[in-house]
Design a protein that fits this description.
0% strand; mainly alpha; 355 residues; Ribonucleotide Reductase, subunit A; globular; binds fe (ii) ion
Amino acid sequence: MTDTKQEVIHSVTSNIDSVFTWDYERARPALVKLYEKAKTSQWNVSTDLDWSTDVDPEKIGTELGGGTAMRFSVLRTAEDSPARKFSEKQWLQVSVELQNSLLSQFMHGEQGALLCTARIVETVPWIDAKYYAATQVMDEARHVEVFARYLSEKLGHQYRINDNLRLLLDDILSDSRWDITYLGMQIMVEGLALAAFGMMQQITTEPLLKKLLRYVMSDEARHVAFGVLSLQEYYAELTDAEMRERQEFAFDVACRLQRRFAQVEVWERMGVDAQSVYRIMERENPPENRAFQALLFSKIVPNCKKLGLLDAAGGWLREKFTESGVIQYEDHLDTGGEYELLDEVARDRETAATA
Ligand SMILES: [Fe+2]
Ligand SMILES: [Fe+2]
């Protein structure tokens, strides 16, 4: 069940070319290797996870939401805060709801990834990329399934999609250029998701959530690698003017991903005026909050660098990322090959085989 009434079906109009290629030669070894990995690292939500695990949402809320609630600690003291009189019990509920809303947005984002990647199967002109994208379609179906099941069986309710996230996914899907689908989804949205899953997975001690995040991350690392390996080739041939368009698009997506963090839907559910919460957070965004948000860009920035997006067209994106306080990640490990290190599915199978 979702928390508020909304239309069940949402359509996005676009005008795309479905592209065949008659060149079946396996010309892109990095994509061939990635595809082979994807075929052997598939997992099954129904049988690889222990769904009999008892889950205590308040414990998850305290562990994970505790940190998240800290981001909102200014709401305890600000004169004009609508949550200033909240009891400790209400703050505990805020923590629980923040996690629930975050996982709900992950679920909706996964559906966005499912649609984007199905799109790439149709639009990308290279056979190796079509093969690989087909495996990612299966991965994303599994991710929607796993978050939807965890939310409904273990946490009890789901939030509707956040307006910023919905508009962002709509914009990515309504663009007809095949590389923009990749840039918006594989590089930006999935780059952020990979960092967010990593943080959450390290903090939580809830075994079911921890394992499902480890497995989802193994897949996501491949997806981001798919973006990097495909666009690297294509972007090497674009003109400065074309690169500048991509830089602006990437930066716009980055700004919109930042806005998602206010989690207004939680405050609506808590019965307070979400707009005033948003206003206070914008006004008094504390440094530890900014550090947390910056960390979420630890995958996006090095990947943009690897694609040549930071320094093309006079370094426009470098300047923007410097102003936003995230440029320090430029030399972090990019995700082109990181997927091999993050293959938790293969690791668990090896351990089981030698036990
Ligand atoms: Fe995914
Ligand atoms: Fe993904």
